[in-house]
Amino acid sequence: MNAQTMRRIRQLHLYIGVFFLPAILFFAISGGLQAFRLQQASGWDGAPPPAWMAWMGSVHIDQTVPHAEPSKQPAVAKAKAPADPVKEAERAARKRAALPMKIFIAVLAAALALSALLGAAIALNSRVTRRTAVLMLVAGRAVPLVLLLA
Prior knowledge:
Helices cover 71% and strands 0% of the residues. It has a domain at 1-37 and 117-150. It is mainly α and 150 residues long. It contains 4 helices and no strands.
């Protein structure tokens, strides 16, 4: 490819990257939280999650805003069957086996978020493309909000 084509490809890459930066950050962070099921009441310690975690999880999983805050939703008591020691041991073994992958996903989410922020810093550093990059960044934040709240 000639230099002119490569310059246009880099410019297109810059604008697409800046436009999707807010969504990339959002989904990286919410996906990292979901690796440990922190958006659910049955997550890390069984306590209800903070409202912002439940909100992020709802948008990430269902592409919708929850209608009520999780702390205000009625608690549904589940009747527990008597525990089978063999099944409980198998469940605990699966949880231990899944932990390294969950940690990897959390590190991946953090790396993706950092990479997106570094890309934005690079995009906004160029005087030639700064104005368009800022406009794309604002549009990339506004469009999903409009679609989510519409």
